[in-house]
Specification:
Strands 1-2-4-7-9-12 form a six-stranded mixed sheet, sandwiched between helices. The chain is α/β, with parallel strands linked by helices. It is globular and about 60 Å long. It is 48% helix and 18% strand.
């Protein structure tokens, strides 16, 4: 790759979808160029409220993203390492924000920060040859951009500890069985499958989808009675909104809803 070429590019893939592509060979290491590029892509989405779904994929053969920039870390002092960690966590936090849906289209390796990037997405689509891992213990470290928090919420404590304590790579079919991968497709088809999923996500009410995410996330953090009360509050608030009125009317009139 020419150093003058962008590490991240983005393009509209339909009116409501933005496709964000990682393109920093040889392995899409999540250094500052990729972090800056992801932030710029998210700025684009923030300025385009019609965009509902972000797809994150890679054009580097064999890699979704191989993790943190180890060469940078080897030269960094404590202050630089802390700043780098803050920058990576901040951009993944932006990606995970509830105002949009996001899909990681994973082919090849998603390791370390690369898996944490995929975990920050709402859903993950994987080709059959994809592999996942959080190998930080082999460096004397732990995942530091959400891996210890987001992975157990997806796959449970036992699977998460197995992956993180060994640092092993998990094949796509095993990742699908444990719930790390949302949809498993043939090798090379993660991108098209992600586009198809984005089209599926484009139909329902955005307000209802955001409420689903908020309420499901609350289930990990609150006792069951409090979670049930929160769910009741959310559905009651939606019922008074225009999208619920449209959805109910469309059902009665036997037509597709128009959520705008």
């Amino acid at each position: 790759m020419n150093p003058s070429e962008p590490a991240v590019t983005w393009e509209r893939a339909g009116d409501r979808v933005l496709r964000v592509t990682l393109r920093r060979p040889p392995a899409n290491a999540l250094g500052l160029p990729l972090i800056d590029g992801l932030n710029q892509a998210l700025d684009e989405v923030a300025g385009a409220p019609a965009v509902k779904t972000i797809i994150v994929d890679s054009e580097v053969p064999g890699f979704f993203a191989a993790g943190a920039d180890i060469k940078y870390m080897a030269k960094a002092g404590a202050a630089d390492f802390a700043a780098y960690g803050r920058a990576l966590r901040a951009v993944l936090g932006r990606l995970a924000a509830p105002q949009w849906l996001s899909i990681a289209a994973v082919e090849g390796l998603a390791l370390g920060g690369g898996l944490e990037l995929a975990l920050a997405c709402t859903l993950r689509v994987a080709g059959a040859e994809a592999r996942f891992g959080l190998p930080e213990v082999k460096l004397g470290l732990i995942p530091g951009a959400g891996g210890t928090q987001r992975l157990p919420r997806l796959v449970g404590r036992g699977h998460a500890l197995d992956i993180m304590l060994t640092g092993r790579q998990v094949a796509a079919d095993e990742a699908y069985r444990m719930g790390l991968v949302s949809r498993l497709v043939a090798a090379g088809q993660a991108g098209p499958a992600a586009l198809s999923l984005a089209a599926e996500l484009g139909g329902p009410s955005r307000a209802a989808q955001q409420a689903v995410i908020r309420t499901v996330d609350a289930s990990y953090e609150t006792p069951l009675p409090d979670g049930l009360a929160y769910e009741a509050d959310q559905v009651q608030a939606l019922f008074g909104g225009e999208e619920a009125k449209e959805g109910i009317a469309a059902f009665i009139e036997k037509r597709p809803p128009n959520f705008g």
